[in-house]
Amino acid sequence: MVRGWPFTGRTAEVADALAGLTRTDMRGVFIGGPAGIGKTCLLKAALARLAADQTRIVRVYATAATSASSFGAVRPLTGQRPLTGLDPAEIIELLLARLRDGDLGSATVLAIDDVHLLDRFSASFAYRAVVEGAAILAATYRTGEELPDLVGKLRHDDAVAVIRLGALAPTATAAVLTEVLGGPVQSRSASDLHRLAQGNPLLLREIVDSADGRAGFELRFGLWCWSPTAAVLEAGPARQIEARLAGLPARVREVAALVALSEPLELPILLQIVGSDTVELATRDRVIRTVALNNRTDVYLEHPLYGEVIRLRLDGDGVQTNRLYGTLANAVEDLRFGVSSDALRTATWRLRSGTPPDPDLMVAGARAAYGRYEVPLAIELAKAAIAGGAGFDAVEVLAASHAVSEDPIRALEVLAEARPGLTNNDERIRAAQTEAVVRFTRLYQSSADDALRQEGLSVPRSESRVALPMAAAMLFWTGRVKRAVADTSLLAESDALSPAARSIATAMALAMKAYMGAGEDCLEHVASLPTPTDADWQELPYAQAAGAFGRWVPTLVTATVVRKLPDAPSANALYFPLHDGIVTLSRAMAHRMAGRVQDARRTCVEMRLNGDTGSIYASACMAEQAQSTALLGLAEEAAEALADADRRHQPTMNAMYPWIELARSQVAASRDGAQAAFPIIDTLLARLRSDGFTGLEIHALLASARFGLAEDGDIERLAELREKIPGSFPVAVHEHALGLSTSDTTHLLRAASIYQALGLDLHAAEATSQALAISRMRRSAGTGDLANRVASMLEHCDTVRTPALTFTIPRLTPFQTDVATLAAAGQKTPVIAGSLGYTNRHIENTLYDIYRALGVSRRSDLAGVLHLFDLVASLESYP
To answer: Residue 93's CB: how many other CB atoms inside 10 A?
Structure first.
């Protein structure tokens, strides 16, 4: 699995190093950085780019051993000549003569690794070589180390370019891992490895190579996933860390263990436990570091790998771990760092310590864990709270946690056991909300809304919490749209409801109205969606999820999502599926429509790797994966993903059916040709019109246009929708279909222009390609310009397979290819005839045959068409 380690992510630095070696006003380059950061690799990469026939490279390797003797590092340059009896000045002259022995006209580069380790005589030689023009100097040095005086003078005199090499960027770390492992890496895994290695390539290699083949790595959905295992302890740096910790005083090791279990740890807590002297000692020993921010000082371990090593070792020592957690919890309580300020961490420490827990603390911690979607921890804390005598508050968080886990039946059992003891309206409503969520999102019971609605109507509106808007949202998800629209519209205006309830109703109403064709109007209200500031721990995730749905559905329907691309959740962020599901799905769709189909596929796969696709988004996520993989020509994966979508689809996911069927049409068209998509789109259009989803009808009609299937009735309908639905997207789709129907390139290019303005580069490429096909068929003037435009668009999109972007490349004979190439380059007929040994007439007749084959009518169009076909032929998706 693990291949050779590449040098990547340093393009700008290589260019800077090369400039230092080639600029006439510079005499070389110094590359500085910490150990393992890639200084030598950068030096090699820059040297490799120098013209081999014009450059002679002389390598010098300085080490701690060579620094102890005069001329130690450069002695190999003297060859076999004995140096006995020569004074230092004579030896330097000998060395300079060696440098000048190169071929005339070639430059000599003196390349020195670890120049800071040069002895003073070797440094004198290097200095003179540079100032006397005998060589250009290319050197690496370790930051923090003192350079020899004369070498340092070169840097201070600005005689050399200086590059200070920093850590790899996270994207560069991911690129390195992708190349090493032979395939893409899950974002979270790449982020974890980047964090542990701190962007240091050597440390990254040590950690990955320690994984012994496949230990710690798992290939899932085509992405390599990594989790820290005991194999990390076998890494060279990890062993060094263990050896270093073992040599430290016991009180410093105690500090390291405390911080490893709690990082970041507030400085006052650590001072309370070990005292200022020990904290100062641990800081001086570079075991910990402090970071001051916003009137708070936190303590971190000096390096993330310290924490991994310590935590993995503590996993096998329950007694020690319990003692440390108890110490932390006691310190927090002694300092009155309260339940309100850090409930989750304090409750977790107390729970892990094995000491009797405070029920109120456990409930607060469980709620906080649930809000962060740390579901297993929330369940643990809630159970501890119930065992300690907590009431319905603990029961509720336990059931809610089971609701978003894989044990919905247990959630219902917990609620059923508690129901006889419910004492007031608030507890009954909260129980009903939790039960409805379990039945709807986990057991897929489409009737769950009815019981929730009845419970919400049985109490005054002011006491109904979010029951009524949640019930209305469930109506929408199950396809009962008209009633859902009516209910949410009324609820959004109800002053009797809480702000959290109104925010859910408002967000869902926006999404529904967008489906029904009012997307552009909804966009104006998206920015002002209310923030549910009064929502409690249980309601907040659902209010946030509704807000995300209401925010992104209008952008998807109006095809403006590419220009409003939602931020990707942090690779290390905790994942709450009901919220992150729609955000991630929106990103995937935006990537696809923009032509970044590989990113679309990856986004869907990453979503699935989170272990849950948000239940109601599960089938849509898998369908989107199917669509992107179909576009990439991965027919087998597309079919499997679509089958997964059908298996996961439930009545409670019906609101996503338009996106699923659009994906189905793409899979069919990519696999079996455009006509295979016709019955799918035809059925989808009928259903959308029946449901009143005119906003999404545009997308289905776009599919018809893309596949060349739009009929007269479709074009008439598009003309009607263009007038009825605001925005540029309906205009573009109508122009697209009309252009194909009338074989009018003007309409097609107008559509392409609008698509590009929306960021829909894939659809712009398709419309332009369809215009090119018409132009080639007619052999119209300007075909070459159109071909160049298509080529430019394809270069900005991933290689995809769609009917509009599938090209039949004419087969020219070798002779025709030679003639076409010369003519495209601007050569006149007599020149071509003379160079190939044929008559002018023969060349003209050949050009006529070439024009007919390529679909052009004049020489000026040849270059563009040939360029496009050369590009297409180079893409792996085309045979």
So the answer is: 13
Q: What is the reported pLDDT for 546?
A: 86
SS3 state at 113: strand
What mean pLDDT comes out for the span 498-511? 90
Q: Is the model's pLDDT at 37 over the cut of 50?
A: yes
Q: Is 358 left (phi over 0), alpha (psi -120 to 50) or beta?
A: beta
H or E element in which residue 337 lies = none
Number of C-alpha atoms within 13 angstroms, CB side, residue 20? Answer: 27
| Amino acid of residue 517 | G
| Beta-sheet pairing, 265-266 with 223-226 | unpaired
Q: Are strands 136-142 and 28-33 parallel, antiparallel or unpaired?
A: parallel
CA distance 398 to 381: 8
State the Cα angle at 643 between 639 and 644, rounded to 5°.
Answer: 120
Q: Are 292 and 286 in contact (CB under 8 A)?
A: no
C-beta separation of 114 from 35 below 8 A: no
CA distance 382 to 326: 19
Instruction: Tell me the pLDDT band of 252, cut-offs 50, 70 and 90.
Output: very high
Handedness of CA 650, 658, 474, 600 (dihedral sign): positive
Cα 148–chain centre separation: 45
- For residue 834, how many other CB atoms are within 10 A of its CB? 13
Q: Which of 24-33, 611-620, 843-852 has the lowest mean pLDDT?
A: 611-620
Does 403 score more than 90 pLDDT?
A: no
Q: 572: pLDDT confidence band, cut at 50, 70 and 90?
A: very low
What share of the chain has pLDDT > 90, as a percent? Answer: 51
Task: List Cα–Cα distances, 72 to 78, 98, 257, in angstroms.
Answer: 11, 16, 44
CA dist 156 to 150, 162, 526, Å?
Answer: 10, 10, 56
Amino acid sitting at position 446? S
Strand arrangement, sheet containing 161-164: 55-61, 107-113, 136-142, 28-33, 161-164
Count the Cβ atoms, other than its own, within 10 Å of residue 447.
11
Amino acid type, 192 = D
DSSP symbol at 594: T
Q: How is residue 198 annotated by DSSP?
A: T
**Dihedral-angle region of residue 418 (phi above 0 means left; psi in -120 to 50 means alpha; beta otherwise):** alpha
Picking from 618, 617, 635, the residue whose alpha carbon sits closest to that of residue 626 is 635
Give which of 514, 500, 418, 421 is closest to 467, Cα–Cα: 500
In the prediction, which pLDDT does 1 show?
46
SS3 186: coil
Residue-wise pLDDT for 518-569, tens only, equals 999 998 888 777 666 556 666 777 788 888 888 889 999 999 988 876 565 5
- Residue in this structure with the two tokens 């996993």, named with its chain if needed: 315
Q: What is the model's pTM?
A: 0.79
Collapsed DSSP state (helix, strand, coil) of residue 475: helix
CA angle (187, 192, 197) in 5-degree steps:
125
Pairing mode, strands 136-142 and 265-266? unpaired
Say what the pLDDT of residue 878 is.
42
Amino acid sitting at position 621: C
Span 598-609, mean pLDDT?
88
- 3-state helix/strand/coil string of 318-387: HHHHHHHHHHHHHHHHHHCCCHHHHHHHHHHHHHHHCCCCCHHHHHHHHHHHHHCCCHHHHHHHHHHHHH
How many beta carbons lie within 10 A of that of residue 244, not counting itself? Answer: 13
The answer to whether 795 and 871 have CB atoms below 8 angstroms apart is yes
- CA–CA–CA angle 269, 270, 275 (5° rounding): 115
Backbone angles phi, psi at 33, to 5 degrees: 165, 170
- The CA dihedral of 576, 581, 583, 585, to the nearest 10 degrees, is 160
Give pLDDT tens digits for 421-437.
898 999 999 999 999 98
Angle (nearest 5°) at CA 506 between 501 and 509: 125
Cα(805)–Cα(800) distance, integer angstroms: 7
